[in-house]
Each structure stands twice: as structure tokens, then as C-alpha cells.
Amino acid sequence: MKKFYRGVVKCRKAILIVFLILAVVCAFFKNLVSVNYDMNDYLPKDAKSTTALDVMEQEFDGGIPNARVMIKNVSIPEALEYKERLEAVSGVTGVTWLDDVTDITVPLSTLDPDMVETYYKEDIALFTVTIEEDSRLTAVAQMREIIGEENAMSGSAVSTAIATTNTVSEVQKITVIAVLFVLVVLILTTNFWAEPAIILIGLGMAILINGGTNLIFGEISFVTNAAGSILQLAVSLDYSVFLIHRFEECRKDHADVKEAMVDALCKSTTSILSSGLTTVIGFLALVFMQFQIGPDLGLALAKGVAISLIIVFIFMPSLILAAYRLLDKTGHKKFMPGFGKFAAFVRKISIPMVCLFTLLIIPSYLASTANAYYYGSSNIFNEQTQLGRDIASIEEVFGQRDTYVLLVPKGETATETELSNELRDLPQITSIISYVDMAGAEIPLEYLDADTLSQLMSENYSRMVLSVDAAYEGEETFSLVETIRDIAEEYYSGTWYLAGEGVSTYDLMDTVTADMVKVNLVAIAAVFIVLLFAMKSVSLPVILVICIEAAIWLNLSCPYFMGQTIFYIAYLIISSIQLGATVDYAILMTERYKENRQVIERNEAVRQTISDVTVSILTSGSVLTVVGLLLGYISTNQLLAQLGILIGRGAIFSLAIVLLVLPGLLFLFDRLIMKKKQNKKKIIS
What does 491-540 look like in DSSP terms, one character per residue? Predict the structure, then answer.
């Protein structure tokens, strides 16, 4: 190891140049990475709704309706004019309204009122619009110009377009505030004015390289784009801080700064590498999710931490050696107080805290598994945003509606008629647009309008468009999806396809709930194994993992006790993120305790350890807390906001348990922890 680090120190100028060029190239590549804001795109390829969408795309030009547009105070002729204008928007492949399901030349009073009120009610028209995936941004903007601010739009295409626009500016704002906060924290916790700048340069280099190398994935999810960089900043900050502090210590023993750096690298490798590996593995556990946002985020974060480790072991030594004279000239007095009194207080309450911790473990675990969840994207925007107000406005008049599309084999009109009749008996289905419903099984195909026919018939399939009076998700919706699938299976066994937002959300729910146990077990087992090899102890990994898992359960029990509904994806992701990002605090506390126990008795070792590590743990933990809360309170995307709150609150719980509970556990299990050491060397008792 020493030979490798001597090579790094010897080639420091070349290393600086290479990394500078790499950062510039990656800054350019970063702008080429596309971001996907549609959660349904991350369903497994073999999910039923995904397969249905693929078949539909092959067979028909128009996709599934993915937007609703509500126009107030319009007559029938005016509504038809709006329909024409919406159809003319580039990227809009279809607009469905009342005239598509019935003859509107007759008095409306003579028509089925339920069917009419699906599209037209109290001089308010509701259009169902299909927008091409690649045209969502421009199409939604043009549609807003047509309808004006006083009218409303909703649907997955609209929410995706708005999320795309808003998230970019929000992430930039969060990043700026986070960097400023990190700068303030570093100024308070370091001994040189130049030190924060050096650390931030290293972090910036790692984040730029990670962002640019995301190009290997082709595209990344909006979750990765929003949370990736700021999480990388938060979890890898302490690696650089630890190295530079070790270098300052080693300079006291070495006149040659290059030898001091080699010594610092050798002494810090084990602790930095074990912390980094547990973080990487915690993130990599997300790769085992079937829901592909997990692998997307996990791979990007794991790669980011791995790059941060490379930066710390190769780039940072070169940078520090280039700037050490500047460090010498910019020393200042310590701003942070000593933590001796805090350490004495914690030692005094450590055993009661362990008792309280023991009492809370089981209730917090049970509460964390009893939450109410959102599975899809229908609740991503609340009523504080324009889209949230639009959704509420539409639902107030027309209720919660969705559109499903059912494909069945072409040519069996009698069977299709029977299927349509049975589907119409379902109270949630308000109308059906299909060949047999519009023309009747007895009318030959050649008598139908070619454009209409192309939307209802393909070479192999007949398409039925179902308007359903149901929310995009929920128990009632999921039951309806199961019922429609069962009916379709009865008539066309194994040869039908059903798609729609509610259908995709059902499959999403089915997928992510199956991921939970698997991802958690993989994360826990992987971190445990790394700690087992790093610490050469069975008891310590058990203690550390239990501490952080308890912090996760406490974090996830809060929504239950607060009566909040949480996004299942955030619930699923946070377990791996919190475990990977905060187990480092426990590792640092434990390693320092073991060092102190070599020279002092356990009571004093606990106090000394708390005094030694509190600043380092608070530095890293406060940054993760603030970064999470910034994402939580600035993002208008409620999935990202909730993930941010969980990250920030989870960091607080992890800090509390590591600083207040873990010292007591180390004290109580001292003989077990130090047993191996006692065989080799007498420990002061």
C-alpha cells in the first residue's frame, strides 16, 4: 500500500492535470444525460401493463389517453372548436369528447345522462387527450396557451411535463444552498481558512465526474437526477475531512510533507475504505429491486461514492500537497467548543438511553410496517401547486376519472359484444368506445370512417377504450383492475392486453411491495459481511446494524403516528440510503472506542471517544440532515420532497442513536468487543 501511495505522491502533478481534464469532459457529458420523469417507464419489462403498452404501440398509432383538459363556460359548438384546436397541437395524437361516443346533434336531454356528464356538465367540457411521449413538454405548454390559466389540465403527461420543468430549477437552488451550508460547517469545524475550499474542490470534482459518467446509463430517473449529486456531497464529505486531518497530524511526525502524506494515507485507508464500502454496498442493494428506479438510483449513488473514494486516495493527496503552504498561512483558532462536558453527560445517561432504546425497538418496527402508501404518481403534486389546484378543480366537477384501453383479438365480434355488455355492467365504467359499441356487430367494417376504424381496429386486435369512474390508485381501483382482467380472461384467455394509468399503478404496487423484504435483507447482509471482515468481530457488526436499523424504523414510524400517507417508493429507497449513509457514524465511534480502550479503562474510554468523534459525526450528519430537509421543503414534487424529509429526519435519528445510545452499548458489551484483543494484549480494565 505504501508503495502505491508513494507513486501517487510522486506523480501528483500529472494526476492533477488528468483529473482536471476529466472533470471538464464530464461537465460536458453531464448535459448529454437525459432524465426520465415517468415512473411507469421503470416497471419491469414483463409487467402486464408494460407488455400491453408495447403491443399497443406496435398495433396502433395513438397511445393511451394521458391528459384531461377541462374548459369552463362553453357551449357545445364552442367545445367542438376547442377540441379542434387541441387536436392541432403538435404531439397530440387524439382528443376524445362527447361527440366521439354519441350523436350530439340530438337534444342532450334525450341521451344517457351518466354518459353525457362524463364529458359535459354544467357548461363545462372535459376532453381526454393523448400526447406523444417525446412531445409532452411542448404539447403541454401549447395546450396551456390555448385554454388559459382559468381552465385546468391534469394527467400523467401534464405532471411529467411540469416535473421536468420545475425539478431542474429546484435542484439548482437546493445545490447552491447545500454548498453554502457545507462551506459554513467546514469553516466552523476545520483549523485553516483554505481547508474548506480544498475539500469542496475535491467534492466538486467527484460530483462532476459522477454526473458525466452517468452517460453510460443512457438516461437516469428524475429521482437520481434530483437526489444523486446532493447525496454524494453529503455522504462523502467526511472522507476528505478525515484525510486532511490525518495529514495535519502526521506532519508533526514527519519533516517531509510527502512522507507525511504517505503516512496519512496508510493510516486512514482502513477506516475510509470500510466506511466507503458499507455505503457503496448499502446503495447497491437497490439494484435488487424489480422496480427499475431502484437500480437506477443505486448504481448512480454507488458509482458516485466509489468515485469519491478514488478522488480521496488519488486526487486529494495531490491537491493537498499542492496547497499545503496555503494551509500553513491561513490557520485560525478553533471555532467549535470542546465536547468534554457533553461526553460526561452522555456517559451519565448512556445506560438509561440503552433501556429506552430497547423499549422502542419493537414498537417502532411494527409502526414502520403499518403505514398507508401511495404507489403511483397521481399524488405527486399537492394543491399548493398549479397542477395540484387543476387536479382538484377537475375532480370537483367530474370526479376522479381514468381511461383504460383493452385489446382483444380481432374478428370475434359476437364475443366482443358479450364482453362489452359485461363490462358495461360494472358501475365504475361510464362509457366504452369500440367497434361493436359504435357500429354494432352487424355493420360491415367497410362502412366505417377510415380514421375512426384505424383507432379501433388494427391488423390483429380490436381496441376498447373504457372511461372509468375511479381514482388512479387505491383499493377500489386495484379491485376494478383485477375484475376487468378476470372478465377479459374469461372471454379471451391469455390473448388480451389491458393498459392505463390505474393499471400501471396496480402493477407498480405489485412490484414494489415484493421488493421490500428482498432489498432490506440484501442491504443488511451485505453491510454486515463488510463490517465482519473489517472489524474481525461478530458482535460489533450486530450492534452497529441494530443501531442503524432501529434509527430507520423510528424514522419510518413517524408517518404512521402522524397519520401521513407516504410514497412506497420513498419508503423502500430510504432504508438502503439511511443504512448506507449513516452506518459510517457508528463505525467511526466504534473504531475510536477500540483505540482508546488500548490505553484507558472503559468508563473513561467512553467519555474520551464521545469527545473525540462528536465534531466529525456532527459535521457529516448535519450536512446530510440539511441536504435532506432542503430537498423536502423546496421540491414541489411530493415524492422527492418526502424522500428528502425521510433522509433528513433519518440522519437525525441515526445521529441521536450513535451519539446517545451506542456509547452505552459499547460500555455494556466491552468484554465481548475486546475479547480478542485480550488474548493478544492486556487491556486496561
Answer: HSTTT-EEEEHHHHHHHHHHHHHHHHHHHHHHHHHHHHHHHHHHHT-SHH
Tell me which residue of 508, 500, 456, 463 sits closest to 480, measured CA to CA. Answer: 500
- Do 167 and 226 touch, CB atoms closer than 8 A? yes
What is the rounded CA–CA span in Å between residue 366 and residue 362? 6
pLDDT of residue 677: 52
Q: How far is residue 521's CA from residue 645's CA, in Å, rounded to a whole number?
A: 24
Task: Tell me the average pLDDT of the chain.
Answer: 87
Residues 281-306 pLDDT 10s: 888 888 888 888 889 999 999 999 99
Mean pLDDT of 475-504: 93
pLDDT at 149 over 80: yes
- pLDDT band of 319, cuts 50, 70, 90: very high
Residues with Cβ < 8 Å from 443, sequence gap 6 or more?
A: none
Phi/psi-derived region of residue 467, left when phi > 0, alpha when psi is between -120 and 50, beta in every other case = beta
**SS3 for 459?**
coil
Q: For 111-116, which contacts have Cβ atoms below 8 Å and span 24 or more sequence positions? A: 114/430, 115/430, 115/431
**Residue 630 contacts residue 172 (beta carbons within 8 Å):** no
Residues 253, 313, 658, 567: what is their CA dihedral angle, to the nearest 10 degrees? 160
Q: What domains can you pick out in the chain, each with its CATH number? A: 1-32+190-334 (1.20.1640.10), 66-157 (3.30.70), 336-370+536-685 (1.20.1640.10), 386-505 (3.30.70)
Separation of alpha carbons 308 and 63, rounded Å: 43
Q: How large is the greatest C-alpha to C-alpha distance in the chain, in angstroms?
A: 99
> Cα separation of 434 and 419, whole Å?
11
Query: Strand 67-71 to strand 124-131: parallel, antiparallel, or no bridges (unpaired)?
Result: antiparallel
362 band by pLDDT with thresholds 50, 70 and 90: very high
DSSP assignments along 440-452, one per residue: -TTS-GGGS-HHH
Cα distance between residue 426 and residue 489, in whole Å: 16
Strand, coil or helix: 465: strand
- DSSP-based three-state secondary structure for 122: coil
Quick one: 59 exposed, middle or buried, by C-beta within 10 A (0-12, 13-18, 19+)? middle
Q: Find the DSSP H helices in 214-256.
A: 222-251
| 455 half-sphere exposure, CB direction, 13 A CA radius | 19
Q: At what angle do helices 539-562 and 568-597 cross, to 10 degrees?
A: 140
